[in-house]
Amino acid sequence: MSVPVTLTEQRRLPPHRRALPLLAVALARPLADIRPARLRRVLELARRGAKPATVGQALAAREAVVSVSLRCAGQHCLQRSIATALLCRFRGVWPTWCTGVRTQPFAAHAWVEAEDQLIGESYPKGHYKPLLTIGPAPRKHPDH
């Protein structure tokens, strides 16, 4: 799943802030190779107990992921989106993780959204039709 990407200037994280993004990238790599149904189950489990991510939180996570991984900064959108979602989860929040397609010309892509906005993407919302989304878990409200 990829679209052509031109690498932009990468922002470097200070050494003490690199551990969690590196862990998220490392965990995302094998997850990008598993079947979609299993990946969905893993991500649904991971999102439990997290609050919905804000645009700022999701963007900070994506920027951290691409700053520690040239692979994620390039055309590996599935790994990048999984790593971004996992890094958000490490920080107590969860974005909406998405995969989808467009037809003319055919292309598949994976991305994250927060507050109904695409995070770090150069195309408009609706450019890709979402096929699988894992949003924040529904909050349980106690009975009054």
Brief account:
With 144 residues, the chain is an alpha+beta fold. Helix content is 39%, strand content 20%.
Describe the structure.
- This protein is an alpha+beta fold and 144 residues long.
- It has helices at residues 19-31, 36-46, 55-68, 70-73, 77-90; strands at residues 51-52, 93-94, 96-103, 106-114, 117-118, 129-134.
- It has one domain.
- Helices cover 39% and strands 20% of the residues.
- The longest helix has 14 residues, at 55-68.
- The protein starts with 18 loop residues before the first helix and ends in a 10-residue tail after the last strand.
- The model is unreliable at 2-7 (pLDDT under 50).
> Taking all residues together, what is the mean pLDDT?
91
Sketch the major β-sheet. 4 strands, antiparallel
Strand order of the largest sheet: 5-4-3-6
Enumerate the spans where pLDDT stays under 50 for 5 or more consecutive residues: 2-7
* Helical content band: 25-40%
Question: What's the Cα radius of gyration?
Answer: 15 Å
Report the strand count: 6
* Helix count, DSSP H or I runs of 4 or more residues: 5
